[in-house]
Structure formats: C-alpha cells, structure tokens
Amino acid sequence: MSAIVDLTLVELIDKIKKKDVSSKETTNAYIERCKKSKKLNSFITEDFDHALKKANAFDNNPNFEKKLPGIPIAVKDLFCTKDLRTTAGSKILNNFVPTYESTVTNNLWENGAILLGKLNCDEFAMGSSNETSFFGNVQSPIGENIVPGGSSGGSASALAAKLTPATIGTDTGGSIRQPASFTGTVGLKPTYGSCSRYGIVAFASSLDQAGPMTKDVKDCALMFEVMSSYDKKDSTSVDFERDNYLNKLKDSIKGKKIGIPKEYRVDGMSKEIDELWQKGIKIIKEAGADVIDISLPNTMYALPAYYIVAPAEASSNLARYDGVKYGFRSKGENLIDMYEKTRSEGFGDEVKRRILIGTYVLSSGYYDAYYLKAQKVRKLIKNDFDQAYKNVDAILTPSTPSSAFKIGEKTDDPVSMYLNDIFTVPINLAGLPAISIPAGIDAKGYPLGLQIIGKAFDEQNILNIAYTMEKHINFKNEIKSWWI
Amino acid sequence: MAIDLKTVKHISKLARISIEEKKGKKLADDLNSIFEFIEKLNQLDTDKVEPLTSIAETKLQLRHDEIKSENIRDQILKNSPNENKDFFVVPKVVE
Amino acid sequence: MTKNKSEYLIKRNKNEYEVVIGLEVHAQVLSESKLFSDSPTKFGAEPNTQVSLVDAAFPGMLPVINEFCIKQAVKTGIGLNAKINKRSIFDRKNYFYADLPQGYQISQYKNPIVGEGSVILDLPSGEKVVGIERLHLEQDAGKSIHDIDPQNTLVDLNRSGVALMEIVSKPDLRSLDEVNAYVKKLRSIMRYLGTCDGNMQEGSLRADVNVSVRKKGDKKLGTRCEIKNVNSIKFMQMAIEYEANRQVDLIEDGGSVDQETRLFDTKKNQTRSMRSKEDAHDYRYFPDPDLLPLEFDDQFISNLKKEIPELPDVKKKRFIEKFNLSPYEANILVSDIETSKYFEEVIKNSDVKISTNWITGELFALLNEKNLEITQSPISSKNLSKLINLIKDGTISGKIAKSVFEIMADGDKDPQKIIDEKGLKQESDPKELEKLIDRVIKDNEGKVKEYKSGKDKLFGFFVGQAMKVSGGKANPQLVNEILKKKLK
Predict the structure, then answer these.
(1) What ipTM does this complex have?
(2) What part of A 192-251 touches B (C-beta under 8 Å)?
(3) Among A272, B17, B48, C46, which residue carries the largest CB count within 10 Å?
C-alpha cells in the first residue's frame, strides 16, 4: 500500500470510506510531512491542533456520505476562515482574524473536509511567482530556489510537495493555472460566477474566481463539484444547474471540435513550448477529436487591457485597508498622515505599484483613454471567443510561455513578470473556464502545462478533454523530497 | 506619455500612500515601462465598440427588504487597531 | 410662468446681483434594511449596533441590493414627473474618509435610476416650475464624532450603507423663499409617497446647496460654490444669504469666485472652505464590478404607478374644484399628507367651509402652541367633526364652541358630553329670550333713551348685554331679531 500522502484525493476518500485509514491517520500523515517541509514556506498559518481535533471528531462520528469525509485540506490564505488568521499575504492584514467564513471554504467543511492551514500567496494575489508575499518566498518542490508560480504559489507548492491532498486557489489572471503548470499539477479556473466570491479577499472583482488545484483531473472534478454553488451573498454568482462533475467524467472526446488559436504562437515562444503544444494536438487527434485552426485576433491586447482593469479595480478594492477597522495601523499625526503611513508601510512594492497604476487610469481626464478603452477591448476579446465557439467546443493552448524560473530572476522587471500570464489572462477577461494539466517537462526537467479553454459553464466538457488527455500523456511528477 | 515624479506624487496622494523621495524615481521608471506596454492598446480602434459592463452572465438579483443581521458590535470592533468597545477610533479630524 | 414678486437681489453700489441656487437634496429612503446589506436603518440606536460585516467593509464582503429601495426611488421619480431609466448603473465614488469604511461610496454617476423631472412650487406670487436634473441611489456614510474624545475622532457606522436618494435640482431657484418652498414641496411629495419621512432633525433630509451670483440681466451663470450637508431650511437660507453676499463682495472688490466646496458653520453663521476636501476632488468613478447593471421592464414601473397615491398638486386641484376652497386654503391643507387626511376625515360628515376654518384656524393654533404634529393632535378628527356639526345645527354658538374646543383639547372629550355636562347648549327658546331681553331693557333705561333718540350704534351694546346675561348661551341671531322688535 502506498503512503497516505501519495494517494490522490479520490483514492484517499475511497480508503477512508472503506475504513482502511482514518481521518486522524490521514491528518497526522499530512501534519508530519508539513512539519518536515517548513523549508518550502508553503504555509502562512498552520492549524494542526485544530485539524487533529476535527479529525478525531470525524472518526468518532463518521459520515461517509460526505464528499470529502474527514479530508484535511490547506487553502490559499485569501479565503477568510472563521477564527483563523487571514492575511492575503500582506502585512496590512498580518493580525486579522475573520469572524466569518468564505462561501467556498464553507462548502468544503460542509462536505466533511477539515482545515489544515492557510497557504502562502502573493500579496493580495498580485504576482506570478509568490515573491510579493509579506511572509517570504515559497520554494517549489520541483527544485531548490525555483518559484512555484503565483499567486497561488503556496497552494501549488504544498500540493506538489504532498502537504495537502488537494487545495484551492484563486485566479484573476492565471493565478491557479500558471502555478499548476509550474509544479506539474492540475488547476481549474471556473467560469466567472461559478464559485462565490463571498469571503475571499478581493483583488479584481470582475476577474477573480476561486478554483481547485489537484493531483489529477478526477480530483479536480470532485473539488470543483464541492466548491461551486449559487450564493445570494454574491451578486455576480450565477444560478445554473451544477453537475455531478466527477460522476459524469468520461475519457471520450470523439467528435469534439478543438480549436487551435494561431495568435497564441507568440514571438519568441520557446521550441519546447511549441513542441508541447504539438504533442497535445496530436493526442487529441488520436483520441478522435477534430482539430480546427481558429483565430482570436485581439489576443495581443488582452494583457495590456488586463493591466488596466485589474489594477483599477484593485486600487478601489484595497481602499478599505486604511488602518481604521482592522489590520495594521501606523501612527500618524492626523487622519491623512495615518492613512498614508499605514498604507505605505502595510503594502508591499508590487501592491503599491498596482494601486498607483489603478489610481492613475481612473483619475480625472484618463478614464476614457484607459479604463473605458480596456473595457471595450475586453468586449472585443469576449467577442473573439464567442465567434470561435460557433465552430469549436473547446480551445487548446499552452498554459504558460515558459517553465518555472529562479527566485529573484524577474523581480526587477515588472513587465517580464507580467508576460508570464499572456496565455491565461484572456480567459479571465472573457469570464470563461480553463484548466491547466501537466503535459511534459522541459530540458531542465521542469513541468510544462497545457490549457484547455471552454465555453461559459461548460466545465464538464473541458474536464472530460483534460481527463482524456491526462490518460494519454501519463505524466508523472518526479519530485524528489530534496527539502526534507 | 511619461509619468514624472510630480505625477507619481499626485496619484500616491490620491491613493493615500506616502512615497519616499528616493523610491519615487524608481517607481516612475517602473510605471513608465508598464504604461509603454499598456499603450499598445492605442493601436486598436475601439470607437464603435460598446464597453463591457459585466462579465457575469446573469441579471442583478434583488434582495427582499428584511433585517437579517443582528447587533454584532463585538465582532465588528474586535479587529480594530485602537481598543474601544463602542467606536472605531481615528486621529482627531478637523473639518 | 413666474410672476416673481419676491425677487431676491443683492445691491452693491450701482450694481444689482441675482442669486442662482440649485439644491442636491439627500433624502433617506424609508426602508427596513440598508441599500446593500441586511442590517437595520432605525434612528438613534447605540453606536455601531446596526452594522453588518458588509457595512464595515470587511475583506471579502459584497453588496446585495435591496429591491424595496429601488422601488422607493422609482416611486419618487414618478412623483417628480420624471423619466424613469429602465437601465441604470452603480458606480464607485472613491475617496478616503474615516466614516467611509469601503474607501468608496456606491453611488450612481453617469446612468442614474431617474432622469429629468419637475416640481411645482406654490408661491404667494403664483406657481413656479423647478426642474429636476436627476435622482440617483447611493449609500450613506457613517458618522464621525469629534466632541466626545479630545484627542481622537470616534466613528459610528450605524448609518453606513443606509439608502439615500440624491435629488438634484436645476439651478432654477432664485430666492430664499423659493428654497423654502422647494424643500417643503419635495418633502411633501415624498411623505405622500411614503418614500422618505422627511425628518430633518434626524438627518433624513439634508442638502448640498449650490450658490452663484450674477449681475442682473446676465445670461451666463456665475462660478458656483457648493455648501455641503446643510440640515435645516433655516440653515440653508442663512448659508445662502451669507455665501451670496460673500461672492458679491468678492466681485465688487474686483476679485473672482473660486469653485470650491464649503461648509456652513452654524455657530458663526458663516460658510468656509473645506480644506479636507481639497485634494479629494478626483473621485475616480467607475462601475462597481461587484454589481451588475440594474434593469427592469415597463411592467415593473406600471405596477409601481398603481401604488402612487393622489399627490399634493392633484389633491389641491380637487379641493379647489370640489370644495370651493381658495388656493391658499387648499395649499395649507394638502401640503402635509397627514393634514390632508385629517381634513378629509372631518369633512366626511361635516360642513366643508366651517371645517376648513376650524382646522386652519383653531386647530393649527393649538398644534402650534403645543408644538405637535397633526398625527399627535389632542382632538381627533371624529370629535372635531362632531363639534362642527353642533355649530352648524345651532346647538352651540361659535363662541361657545371655542370654549368647548379648549376643553376637548384636554383629553379628546366628546363635545356633546361637554355641552351636556356644562349646560352650554344654546338658548333658542324665543319666550326665554324675550324674558331675558326685557330684563336688559329694564336695567338700561338710560341707554334705551339714547338709542331711540338716534344713537344707532348702541344696538351692539344691547346684544352684548343679552349675551352676557345668558352666560353666552343665547342664540345671537334670535337675540338680534327680538331686540330689533323690542327697541322699535
């Protein structure tokens, strides 16, 4: 029998249901490994004692009807958790303890899961390498001093290092898919409106979406099923019939039409990425799908538009961190001085940079040239997808333009950092679902991912495609526990 | 377009973030390189395009006019940086 | 349309200045819960006891809109004869302030829920139409308290998130009287509609006042100043008067007016520049991404139209046409919905003319003296109606009625009972009256002689004596008739 931490989520649940292992044994196994893995810095806040209590309680009165029976899960520290510190990776929320629970995490606990701790992330989810966190860099298990991606870097690191059987992140411009791609794991950004944003520290309201990060596609289907719900507390939550995604998962894509957008073959794309993409195309062809060349003509404008919309919304969303009601406060001579010092000392450089970009693009005289323009571009990008989906059922692209890079490699050049999200951002702008699955490794042995983009609320379809491809690719994440 | 130190100071004032003089210059440089990248949008003619108003594929849901929240003053003030059981406290404001 | 005799001009040297005023009235929507959260809106609660996680802007909290507040805004729009916009957008107005927990106010900027409309003012000189620019929904802020703690400002968020309607007038007002009439008319309409209680003491109705001046005859508007958050009509008038004169002085001294936000200091009766607002002019409005555009159909509006009661302008017309009231009388009876209800209750069973006189006369005087609202009237409409019927059928005289009224004021007693108990019924028996008058004549022989020798004026003296002897109960009409006969 393989070790508990080596099991996929679905396998683990099966063992728990069969009483092969208890919740306590499972929780202990993860805690033990977490304790040995501090070097990765995946966690901001551990909640081990509490998790063990919960695991005991589950074992004493087990309910195997639950979808996640007694499963310990660590979550990104962007989800507010009742009575457990929630920081969003920022000094400004260093001491903040919510008195409420986010809808998505609540769905996990309602389904029997147990909170193991809060995972590191880029400050306010702004970053692509987890290097903007107030709580320090996160090491990727794929290699020392390699970034796990971001912003859900702690989540990706913890998952790939087997510190949690599955996890959840948030994705505003690629923050689930890019770290999943960097760490050889599966990450799904659901359709906007699928998972409630209630209780998630907001970055950019019209782009933020929570989603699962898992070891494989089956786990992903299950986690998504648990997370997604219609929530009246979120006005942008959409009331649609949510499927039993795991049960309906099938490895057949015969007759499906898959689009290959020529605009994703960007200048300077590495040969490895191109080869990976061709490999993916070959696989779906072999699985019986039709591959169709398509055009998404406004793709190149997505990233510039994103760097208007996301900072604009963020500049407003982060105005509430002013030292008055909660979190960090710096002493000031008067109210304005207190605000300015609190926010200057409480936010890190990248967050400040984005707040200033956002403030600038919304400021008097610039609104039309930037924000309004970006919203028009967003419309064009959405139209591109609408047009494409008249002919195809899903779209296949690489997840990222490169594999994971070294810590510190891109921190001095914001734009080169932003370019990491070039393939993921258009999907957020259009509100669509997309999944990243591991598809190979580069010359350095670092994982590379492929992205499958679906129609709105068509998660089942992209899960099925991903499941089929996963079987053909048969990717094995060869992680040596170098940090232990 | 170029963002100078004066502009950085103005927007940081609006955003209520104090910026040290020596960091201001670097920040202006960073912002300029980001805006250079953003300006790519100017290549695109969007005169006839309607801006996107919402990405959520739904209609605004309306709530009934019912009081559901109770007095949770303790919870509301619990995380407040300045201890006071009735109020939030800030440095004296002079109108 | 305007026959404005109450023209308000400021004279300096040889110049005459006209004052141009526009109001942005902030009216608190009558609703149980707040605009975007489910916490209560009641006035006067302990600090921070009506605050939800949404109102205090905790991380991850999201706004969910109150349907009733939308209906209230649409109804008010209908009451202002305004265009209702079936699609409107909520924007964020970004600025930092201690009592603004989100760091932005959710408001409506480019696409408000209600567009252009109008309000008719009833001025002594006649009617005047004031244009309404727009009405939009927005959140109220909390309250900063500066006078409890000497070192700090304390913040109470009970009001944070309460729904407000901002009603923006066109710069159509020209005098303090017009401002008075406009605010009262708005208040009246909203009280009829039940969309705002109009209680200025509790801050349910406040206004930002835009004032500019221009030389009489100039077509172009002068530079305006906005006086923020004035909470009574009296203060509005004082603020306008001060501000207009300040602006005139500036111009007369060869200077110019700066467009700025000012504050009315109620202790000094002056306006002054608000320094704290200076660098906050750039509100960086953009559509709130936590919300979607607000959309409704014609059916939604027509359903609300069915709920609109008869409004003061229509009621006034009906009172004039149906009851023959003067425009003046009709105005005072319709201006407040409760007064109009009281009036209509009384006249259900009583003479309209006498009722009108008694309500606008005695009753208003009584309420005024005791500082009561008509809903708190010590005399119910039912008993006032009875009293009026007793006058009408001659049971008591108008004079006796006044004493009965006074007794009624003390505990809403039935007038018939008072009359029975105190024996105040009018004496109308000719035989009794003749006896009484004979006595008067006998007691005043000298005066009778004078009268008969031609001093006609003395007739009133005899009437007075007869009334006095009867203890006021004699039917004055009969006394007149009998006296005339007897003194021939």
Answers:
(1) 0.97
(2) 192-193, 206-207, 232, 235-239
(3) B17
